[in-house]
Write a structure and sequence with these properties.
By secondary structure, the chain is α/β, with parallel strands linked by helices. The chain has helices at about 5-10, 30-45, 60-65, 80-85, 100-115, 130-135, 165-175, 190, 195-220, 235-240, 260, 345-350; strands at about 25, 50, 75, 90-95, 120-125, 145-150, 180-185, 225-230, 245-250, 275-285, 290, 305-310, 315, 325, 335-340, 355-360, 365-370. The protein is built from twelve helices and 17 strands. The strands form two sheets. Strands 1, 10, 11, 12, 13, 14, 15, 16 and 17 form a nine-stranded mixed β-sheet that branches. α5 (about 100-115) links the parallel β4 (about 90-95) and β5 (about 120-125). α4 (about 80-85) runs parallel beside α5. The radius of gyration is 22 Å and the shape is globular. The structure holds pyridoxal-5'-phosphate. Pyridoxal-5'-phosphate binds near residues 95, 187 and 252.
Length: about 375
């Protein structure tokens, strides 16, 4: 774990102006409002919340989510699960397939460590080979592991087809004493970013039908399906209203990136605010444009360029270390430009620490430093 540099620790209590650029900054007041809105939504709909910690990669933020009602967290990587466990999180679901023996040994060790702490580890599967490998890795252990069968509900990524394929896998799992079928995972990644609320509603409506039929098929074969888990920030209100899903996996709601802000909001969904920013400084310019010191090494661009917060400026790529700002009123040399990243998950992964601010981005003070515990945890 990276030690907290003294210069960063010394920032706590200082004005926002003291933060050197480029830096990843959390508006903690906005983040708290997002946290509370989501927690309240889950309570009102009587549904479990298991936020995706691959977004913030921070055990401290995961613990905060759990203190406000989340049941535990999802992660995507074994290394992320290890970082969460090391940071005190006790209920972890790897919502992804793990196949390599070296990783499965780590999964076994992690499951044992969590069981010793009265915690729990679960994992997704989508193939017979994956199920067999997992069962072998857990051989000889009295307490096994909970597994969710991942169904491909339209993303065309991992998952078995709904229907008989899922049943086949459920039958296999039922024969293996080390594994316990905990339910189905039905996460529709592509639907999250459909811009129109109507389109998202139609897609999730279809998914609910298919997964309901799959669940019935498995249960008619005498295998109980306790839980259906899934959903992200773009669609969770639909899954929550479906009567099928018992758990929501949304992650990005906590920081709310520029890409998600372009979705037409479903009225059933609480509003979320931008809470993650890259602070940058204007270091050059002319009559045509200004240049800030935050390029693509400070923010991910897979979902588009960042947006300039509260300024009528557009950000254009200036390469790894620079951003080109254009607009009618250009900022002067030395001014701050706050950028809202296009995609929060890979942006966070570019930083060791996030600087938490209270009292607003303009006049606030640094309140705490948040470590990105699972930065680079790709295996
Ligand atoms: C399996 C799974 N569940 C949930 C999420 C959370 O989605 P979001 O961060 O868009 O809310 C993701 C994100 O990619 C995911 O892959």
């Amino acid at each position: 774990m990276k030690p907290l540099p003294e210069a960063l620790q010394a920032l706590v209590g200082q004005d926002v102006g003291a933060i050197d650029t480029p830096a990843l900054v959390i508006d903690l007041d906005a983040m708290d409002r997002n946290l509370q809105r989501m927690a309240e939504f889950a309570r009102k709909h009587d549904i479990r919340l298991r936020p995706h910690a691959k977004m913030h990669k921070s055990a401290a933020l995961a613990r905060l989510q759990i203190r406000s009602g989340a049941i535990g967290v999802c992660v995507q990587k074994t290394g992320e699960a290890e970082a969460m466990q090391a940071g005190g999180v006790r209920d972890i679901y790897i919502s992804n397939e793990v196949l390599a023996p070296s990783k499965l040994r780590r999964v076994r060790a992690l499951a044992q460590a969590l069981q010793a702490e009265n915690g729990r580890l679960a994992i997704a599967v989508d193939s017979e080979a994956g199920v067999q490998a997992l069962a072998e890795a857990f051989e000889g252990l009295t307490a096994g592991i909970d597994v969710f069968i991942e169904i491909d509900v339209g993303q065309g990524r991992c998952g078995v087809a709904p229907g008989p394929q899922a049943l086949g896998l459920a039958r296999l799992i039922a024969t293996l004493p080390q594994l316990r079928l905990a339910g189905l995972q039905a996460y529709h990644g592509r639907a999250q970013h459909l811009r129109s609320a109507l389109e998202r509603r139609a897609e999730i409506g279809r998914v609910v039908q298919e997964v309901t039929q799959t669940r019935q098929l498995i249960e008619r074969a005498g295998i109980p399906v306790e839980l259906v888990t899934g959903a992200g920030t773009g669609t969770f209100a639909l899954e929550a209203a479906s009567g099928l899903y018992g758990e929501l996996q949304a992650g990005s709601y906590l920081f709310m990136d520029a890409d998600y802000a372009q979705n037409e909001r479903d009225p059933a969904q609480p509003p979320f605010e931008h809470a993650l920013f890259v602070k940058s400084q204007v270091i050059s310019g002319n009559a045509d444009h200004a240049v800030c010191d935050a390029g693509h090494k400070s923010h991910a661009i897979d979902s588009g360029m960042p947006q300039v917060w509260q300024r009528e400026l557009q950000y254009f790529s200036g390469g790894d270390e620079h951003g080109i700002l254009r607009g009618a009123r250009l900022p002067a040399l030395g001014e701050t430009a706050w950028l809202v990243p296009g995609h929060c998950d890979p942006t966070v992964n570019l930083h060791d620490f996030m600087i938490g601010v209270r009292g607003g981005l303009l006049d606030g003070k640094v309140h705490r430093i948040v470590r990105v515990d699972a930065r680079g945890a790709l295996t």
